[in-house]
Specification:
By secondary structure, the protein is mostly beta strands. Helix content is 0%, strand content 53%.
Amino acid sequence: VQLVESGGGLVQPGGSLRLSCAASGFTFSSYRMSWYRQAPGKERELVAHITSAGGGTNYADSVKGRFTISRINAKNTVYLQMNGLKPEDTAVYFCSVLYGWTNYWGQGTQVTVSS
């Protein structure tokens, strides 16, 4: 299982970014995918997840209405569209999959929201 995130960067408050996570090594279309984030000095927290076919999503209260998780199974990729970014969204963002009994993680991508 390999997960590779991309798309992070520095953005001003109110701006947007789209994160991508390219997956390989498992049957992507059969698994729920998740995005997490971890800010300095804080625990890793769930941001959003999406069901295997993409028909169901769930979001942390702190990002509802601003972030959208989606996936394209033909591309083995999950996305996180982030709009209306706030300084408190600054964190390393990880995608994750529970495969078998193990949670797999990517290396993460840094998102910094600052003026």
